[in-house]
Amino acid sequence: MTYLLGVDEAGYGPNLGPLVVAVSAWGVGEQWHEPADLYDTLARVFSRTPRAGRVAIADSKALYKPRGGLRRLEHAVLALAPRVASWNGLVDTLGADPDGRQGSLPWHEGFDPLVPGDASQAEIDSGRARVVLGCASAGVDPPTLAARIVHPLEFNQLCDRFDSKGATLSHVSLGLLRGAVDGLAGAPVYCVLDKHGARNRYAEVIEAHFPQHTLAVDGEGRAESRYRLSGPSDITLVFRAKGESHLPTALASMTAKLLREVAMAALNQYWGARVPALAPTAGYPGDAGRFRADIAREWARLGLEEDLLWRRR
């Protein structure tokens, strides 16, 4: 069995809320060879745009708009993840909070909304049935999903440790990928990761997370950087601009975005209940500063540590 993996993030740029990284892993048998495309193999199941009778999977930026709610994200992610009833169940089943850090955040105390929130369970169940039948017909194993939520306090600690937020993203991504690869019993892996900003060179961070493998650099450039690992398993890693064109990476993008948006709902709900007429925030620079100023008095009254809320990089 060969596995196609994709890794992507949501929330790299904001000052508020978590960075979330996700991975999806698909078993495709031994017959798969690059550049075969899962969008073609599973054309009767998935589409890049919303379409009747298909599950839409694409870059989360293409499918999610704040005013449109979470329906499109939920329709895909919840049809492909194990069935859960609530937010905490989703976090647990994806292994997204392995150290239980979420419990230290006041805005997550008692926050456990039902899942799905915007999509209907009926449309998710219909999508799940289509995925199971379509994947079986194509000889593809439905994906396994995992994620990692990095809240601001940990994000700041990692940035201090690795000296940049770009390096932090790379280490979180490769750590999550390593965990996924370890669960595949030495099977060959082909993984596409969306490039980490303008960075072209990843050999050092790859070797840090795969020390038992031998690394070969096949090329490093603006369009993509490509690496081969040999050892306990054979792994091809491709860091690609617009990596979400690879279906497993697009699903990772949607998974990360869904988790990030629900985490932001917790933050906005908590502070909105304490600061009258507070406008919610998506957490990005500019508006994040406005939100921080609006809650400053209540923040000081509660005596909360600043790093619980504010990402310094």
Report on this structure.
- By secondary structure, the protein is α/β, with parallel strands linked by helices.
- It is built from ten helices and nine strands.
- The chain has helices at 38-41, 60-63, 71-80, 87-93, 121-138, 152-162, 165-182, 203-209, 247-272, 287-302, and strands at 2-10, 19-29, 46-47, 55-56, 141-150, 189-194, 214-220, 224-230, 235-240.
- A hairpin with a 4-residue loop joins strand 8 and strand 9.
- The termini are far apart.
- The model has no long low-confidence stretch (mean pLDDT 96).
- One of its GO terms (molecular function) is nucleic acid binding.
Q: How much helix is in the residues?
A: 25-40%
Oligomer: single chain
The largest beta-sheet arranges its strands as: 5-2-1-6-9-8-7
- Determine the CATH superfamily: Ribonuclease H-like superfamily/Ribonuclease H
Distance, first to last CA: 41 Å
Largest beta-sheet details: 7 strands, mixed
CATH class: Alpha Beta
Number of domains: 1
GO molecular function: nucleic acid binding
InterPro entries: RNaseH-like_sf (IPR012337), RNaseH_sf (IPR036397)
